[in-house]
Amino acid sequence: xxxxxxxxxxxxxxxxxxxxxxxxxxxxxxxxxxxxxxxxxxxxxxxxxxxxxxxxxxxxxxxxxxxxxxxxxxxxxxxxxxxxxxxxxxxxxxxxxxxxxxxxxxxxxxxxxxxxxxxxxxxxxxxxxxxxxxxxxxxxxxxxx
Length: 145
What we know:
By secondary structure, the chain is mainly α. The protein has nine helices and two strands; from the N terminus they run αααααααββαα. Strands 1-2 form a two-stranded antiparallel sheet. Strand 1 and strand 2 (93-96) form a beta hairpin. The longest helix is centred in the N-terminal third of the chain and has 13 residues, at 31-43. The protein is elongated, with a radius of gyration of 26 Å.
């Protein structure tokens, strides 16, 4: 149902009127042609103006933001979706936490990854089940670090 409105908004009136493109399967079968026309029509438009025009025409649309735009977005920050860390040996980093929010659920902390080898002993002991002596032999032989 959105195809004719999309085409008209993009100035692709001939495609909107083309009965051989009326059904989604028809457009899928001519994917390369359709994608090329859409790409050309979209490329010359400002993304905010285009999204507003599409929404105004009844076509579900929205801007795709870059990571820096998401991190600086007031709504994203107000929802507590931005996390960050200053880790040992790491530069300061910000990132997006999970957008899902549930009452009574606090997502995992946003933290720096462990340093190289920081968890070696724990993983070998707890996850693999090696003894302290076996782990030390692996270190001595240079197999792990």
